[in-house]
Design goal:
Elements (H helix, E strand, L loop, with lengths): L1 E5 L1 H4 L19 E8 L2 E8 L5 E5 L6 H14 L5 H10 L3 E5 L3 H17 L7 H12 L15 H18 L1
Parallel strand pairs: 1-2, 1-5
Antiparallel strand pairs: 2-3, 3-4
Helix pairs in contact: 2-3, 3-6, 4-5
Protein name: DUF6933 domain-containing protein
InterPro entries: DUF6933
């Protein structure tokens, strides 16, 4: 089970929430989501609370996002090149989605930083959905939580791979 934590802007577009959901069982933790607009085109920015890995997708059928989350997560982590067992386990954990409000200001602040960076990673010419993968890769290389000591800095790509492989390899062994 995974918790989709939406900003107020996105919560209005999603089905009603029923109380505060339990913690996510997925390795990447809760997924935070916000709707942003770049070049007059609406996008969804999703960020993993545990790794700060970002997904950038066209904001179509936002109401159906809980049903589409597993597909979005699968596409994103597939490009990380992790082992198949961890990929399958994370996607399965992402199929059951509960909706909640944002609770971690650190993650929402990171989403603001990512949203400001996205236009700089897109080409100046007309851009399409294929360019969004390039944006995701650049965001995955962005140091997060860099205001403190170096040991607290998160690099989303490396952190996501480490979390996925350690979380799901433990579960397979037990």
């Amino acid at each position: 089970m995974v918790v989709l934590r939406a900003t107020q802007k996105v919560l209005r577009l999603l089905p009603d929430i029923a109380g505060d959901p339990a913690a996510s069982s997925a390795a990447l933790g809760d997924w935070y989501v916000n709707r942003i607009v770049i070049d007059r085109r609406p996008l969804l920015l999703l960020v993993s609370s545990a790794s700060r890995l970002a997904i950038v997708a066209a904001a179509r059928d936002v109401k159906e996002l809980p049903q589409r989350l597993a597909v979005l997560v699968e596409g994103r982590i597939q490009r990380l090149g992790i082992e198949a067992a961890a990929l399958v386990s994370e996607v399965q954990a992402s199929t059951l989605v509960r909706i909640g409000k944002t609770v971690d200001r650190s993650v929402t602040g990171q989403m603001v930083d990512f949203a400001k960076a996205i236009p700089y990673y897109l080409p100046e010419r007309e851009w399409g959905e294929a360019d969004l993968e390039f944006v995701e890769n650049r965001l995955a290389e962005t140091p997060c939580r860099a205001g403190g000591s170096f040991k607290d800095v998160i690099f989303p790509r490396e952190t996501a791979i480490r979390l996925l492989e350690s979380h799901w390899s433990r579960r397979v062994r037990h």
